[in-house]
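Support case: iron/sulfur cluster complex. Customer-provided input:
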Amino acid sequence: MTSEPEEPVLSAEPDRTEVLRLLGMHRRRGAPGEVLRRLDELWGEGVSSLRPRVWEVEVPIREVGRTGVTVGDGVFLRSRRLARALGEAVRARVFVVTVGHGPDRLIQRWTTQGRVADAFFLDAFASAAVESLVERYYRSTAELAAGQGLGVTLRFSPGYCDWPVQDQRSLFSLFRDEDLGVSLTESCFMTPRKSVSGVFGLAPAQPGRVGPPPAYNPCADCGKHDCTARRAATATPDPPAPLEGAGP
Ligand code: SF4
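Agent response - structure generated as follows:
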């Protein structure tokens, strides 16, 4: 088992459209001019507040069962859908990423100063930033894996889908004594809040088939139509939006 932070870190600067989407302005033809102007004014301060970090550990998959999957030295992860996603994988990649305490502190300070709208903007900015970071990490891992004839499964996070958020403790235990810059509250939310943890599998190409197996997407046949974490019904590894402090 290996574990080490990635250096140099990936960029966490978010896409402006994603920030606007999180601000609820994605359905409009264009966001109001004053919103765009204020966002531009705050952008540099938002970027300066980010301290992106990635920790990862790769563990063997011991057993894939009906109700979950056992990885590492016997850590059981309670999700049927994760177990199914990891069915063809040979190893599991476990990760924790964060943009650090900077955004949380700035949001707190601005709220205290009465800059509530600015704090609201920064909250959306930082949520988009951590999602950008995890997506860049995931895609760079997928590229490296492809060079070795491996594919990645979709990524899953505690607190999403059928995976209880309490399993954050199991996931964090896989880092053993690693000096993670992210900790868990009693209710298993992460501190800093703008952090994402999760798991995805590395699966080999199948004999007689070019490339890795298509990623299992549990959303394709799920009847929970109001789920905000629903993924597009394609075989492309396309992860859900983050649940603040609980996962991606
Ligand atoms: S839509 Fe997808 S993420 Fe949501 S509950 Fe169903 S399978 Fe899980």
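The mean pLDDT is 86.

Case will auto-close in a few days if no follow-up is received.
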